[in-house]
User: Fold this.
Amino acid sequence: WAGTTYEWSSDVNRVLHNVFKINSFRPKQLDAINSTLSGQHALVVMPTGAGKSLCYQLPALIKPGITIVISPLISLMEDQVRSLTIKNIPAKLMTSTSPKEETTAVLNILKDKNTHVKLVYVTPERLAKSKRFMANLQKCYADGRLQRIAIDEVHCCSQWGHDFRPDYKFLGILSNMFPNVPILGLTATATAHVLNDVQKILNIQGCLVIKSTFNRPNLFYKILEKPTSQEGCISILEKLLKYRYKDESGIIYTNSIKDSEDLAEELRKRGLKVGCYHANMEADSRTKVHNKWHEKYYQAIVATVAFGMGIDKSDVRFIIHHTISKSMENYYQESGRAGRDGLRAECVTLYRMQDIFKVSTMVFSSIGSLDHLYGMIKYCLNGRFCRRQLIAEHFDEDWGDTDCNKMCDICCNPNISTREISLENHCRVLSDIIDNAEKCDTKLTAQKLLDAWFLKGPVNLRHKGKEPNFSRILGEDVIAFLLIQGYLVEDFHFTAYSTISYIKKGPNMDAVVDDDYTLKMPVRKYSDFE
Ligand code: ADP
Assistant:
């Protein structure tokens, strides 16, 4: 697509330079633009910050008519409309909170054959709920003025994605309602499963999928061993912020509102300038925190994932995950907010087995499937393969012999020692412990299982053998490994206050015993930067 000349090619280049003031396209942008201008349905998959908006904003100016942009985030749409207006590109926005006059104005634009407006942004809720909007859109179509429908964050259609929004399902009617109007879906979520699902839901099966690489060569990836105490975590964060990331901007992600508040407070007590951001805060305090961070008054924001889409700060130098993300898709998006300026930035994750269950109980209560989380754990447990290769493979990208350039902890430290662990012996022991617990009607959490394995905790749960001859932390890794492989499974119990994850034997547990399977576990020594 990129190499071919089309009737619109010279206009595309002119608009790129004169209107957007951009010198050249980034990878795959021109492919996306050409495919949609030639009337094809397409899905554009690009990592966050790669420049997806240009793929519909620029085509909107090439041909007559209106481009509808459907996007879930009001603040993001407001930013876009503002920046388009500065470029003298007429764009309007309609959300469920728009004042009546604005709504009426947008509705009239759809009917008005003489309008000069090129882009109309609308939330999926608005589209799904406003009969008048749909009626006027139909009129716009009948007049031949509906040029294109762009659907941002299109993975929100799919339950398999990480951000399902029920109103996105409604978008399935668009391709039938408006035949011959090209649909351009955009997302940073690339798994084949989600993309297929999105095509099905939008009724554009077999459409072009334009995918740019997910490799972010300037991001350094690292796992740090997470201390078991909050005090220990704070001390690591303090050290990182005071020394390694002195005078730099970043985000610390936590998985609960309480954690974000507690950590922010503790870091402030230690003299650091940090803000806190989560969904329970009023909109204007959130905006204030965001601004203070933008202006570099705050070095870091300690946030839940509510601090997400719409962050447009290019010099974010570090993203620290105080708790693992709930999936690799989430991790990629969250860590991807670093280094948009192309300069080196670091993505550090604090990992320890205990956090698996903090997240799994949340994930299980909301979406019921743990596969996504287990993908994240696999990334954390990994001590042998290049981390960016794991990320690429997760997104079904062919890694080949791409060079990491020592931009992950593994490639920096290729001679990490490994330890052979015979699963046969250990699984038998773990299996015995689980049987013992069942006999005495005790439910085992992973921590209790680990204790019993290392001959700690209640005596009646312990086994008759010797204590494993490796570290407890390696024991944690073995249990986590058995869990993501399905040898052990989580068994959730709901109380009025919380969800608890207990450990049961998985269907394969006994198969291991027959297999004499030897695990080659990396011996982690990730307590600090090399
Ligand atoms: P995404 O939606 O993929 O996360 P955006 O569309 O918000 O990314 O673009 C990220 C930033 O990159 C914006 O500031 C945008 O102006 C800029 N940008 C997009 N395309 C180009 C390009 N070809 N050259 C330079 N900057 C670009």
